[in-house]
Specification:
about 400 residues, six-stranded parallel sheet, 13 strands, seven-stranded parallel sheet, single chain, 14 helices, globular, alpha/beta
Amino acid sequence: MSKVLHVIAGVSVASGGPTSALRAILQMLQGTEVRSSVVVGVTDPADGKVLAEIGGAAAELTAFPREFFSRFSCSLAYTRRLRRIVRNHDLVHIHSMWNWPTFWAARVAKQEGVPVVFRPAGALDQFDVRKHRRMKTLLGPVFLRRLFEAPNVFHCTARREAEQLVTYGGQARRELLPLPVLGLRPEADAGAELRRRLGIPAEAPVVGFLSRLNYKKGLELLLPALARARVRFSGLHFLLAGAGEAEIETMVSDLIATHGLADCTHRLGFVEGAEKAAVLAASDVFALPSQNENFGMSVIEALSAGRPVLVSPEVYITGEIGPSPALVVSARSVEAITRDLEVLLARVRSGRGELEVEARALWATNFAPEILRPRYLDFYRRVIRQAQIQ
C-alpha cells in the first residue's frame, strides 16, 4: 500500500478551490491501495466543519492552530513536527504555493528523499504571478527553483495551466491530471422551491453565477450583458451566489445599480451543499466569464447538475472538453457574452431535457471520480517508482 501525505496551508469552504479539490481527491481514493493522510499547516476555530469532513475521508489528519504571522501562515509546531510525519510516507502531494507550510513541506521532503507532487492551484500561473511580482521574482529563483526538479512533478489540471506555468528555471516534469468533481444532484423540487422563495416565476429565464466574488470573475462584463439580454428575454432573473471582500461587494452593488438590474438580481451570499445544488437547479444557464481560472470547479459542478454553461476562453478546462451544445466559450466582451447568453437561453427553451443530458455527460466522461480514480492510482505509482529508481 502506498502512503501519500497531502499538505495544504489552510482549509476553508468559503475559499473554494484547493479545499474542495483536496476533499474530492480524498473521497475518490477511499478504499483503494493508497493510504491518504493530510497535514493542514494553519487552522482557525471557524475551520472545524471542513476539518471534520476532510478527517472523515483521510486515514489520518494533523492540523495545527494558527500561531503568528498570519499573512505567511506560520506555525512553529508544524515546522517542528513535519519531518517526522514526512518520513512515514512514500510521496507528498502539495496543494498550494507561496506560503510557509508548502515551502517547508517541499524542503523537508527533498531532504528526506521523498518525492513531491506540486499542485499549484493557479499560484504559478503567469496571470497570478503578476500579483506581488517583485517579491515572487526575488524569492522564486532563490527558494523554489531547486525544489522544482526531478523526481518532483507538477500536477497540472489542464493543458493551458501546464503551458502557463512559471517554474523559475526548475525542470520538474508536468503531468496533466484533471481534478475529480463530486457530482451535484439537486433534490427533485429544490430549484422550484428556491424560485418560489425568491418570487421568481416558474417560466422565467434564470442565469446563475456561483463563485467567490473576486475582481477576475468577469462580473463587469456579465452584468451589462444581462441588462442587454433582458430586451429579448423579458422577465430574466439573475442568481448571484458568492461572497467576497467588502471592496468587491461594493463594486458588484454599483454595477447592479448602474445597469438597472436591482429588480431582477438575487444576492444569495456564500452557499454550500444543498443550497448550492438548489441555486444550480433554479438556474437555466450558468455563467462564469472569468479573466483567469486554472480549472473552474463551479463550472464542472454546474455541468454535473445538468446545467449548460457559458465561460470565457480563460477558463482553462474548456480545452479539455469536446464541443457540446451545453458548453459555450464566449469571448470576453459584453457584446459576445450577450449574444452567447441569448443562444443558450434559446436552446433551453427549445430543448431543456437534451441539454441536461449533454451537460451531465460532459461531467461524467471527464471529471467524475470513478473515471479519474485509476488515473490517479497510476500517477502515484509512477511517481513513487521513478523516485525509487533515481
